Amino acid sequence: MANKILYGIENVHVAKITEDAKGNITYGTPFAVKGAVGLNFDPEGEITTFYADNIKYFIQESNQGYTGDLEIALTPTEFLKQILGRAEDSNGAIFEASDDTQARFALMFQGQGDQTGRRYVFYDCTTTRPTRENNTKQEEIEPGTDTMTITMAPRGTDKVIMAYIEPTTANQAIYDGFFDAVYVKDQTASV
What is the pLDDT of residue 171? Predict the structure, then answer.
């Protein structure tokens, strides 16, 4: 039975992108980004309308992916080092420098549905440095969170932006191993 609703976010993973001189990309091993609070993503692009014969004669949408905010409890050290390019010294101190080189990455996560989970992958992402708000402790502890704006662009090699999968009897093994490696399209799939 198909989902009627989707909610929640869990199992956030990222995989660093490496690009060779010919523009071919490979993905590193995905690693978990624990503490997901929320993710929103809004479509990017424009609609071009051409009028002729006193009507909208031609309409074209430019799909440039998505931009959104990922809110997490605390940015993990692995993300700071692999994706944001920060350095760690032998004492475990993390250093941010003005010339840190950020990496592109695949973003993977699971949303829950009323019937099954849905697992997503965005194939070519970049991010801003996380914003953080710390407030004084009062009667109750209110945890601060980190928020990063993520751009989810079309992948340069094939213009694919994202994919998602829900489990079926036929694809259960693929679904179960989804976070082990970045999912690639089955070349026998129909369009």
Answer: 93
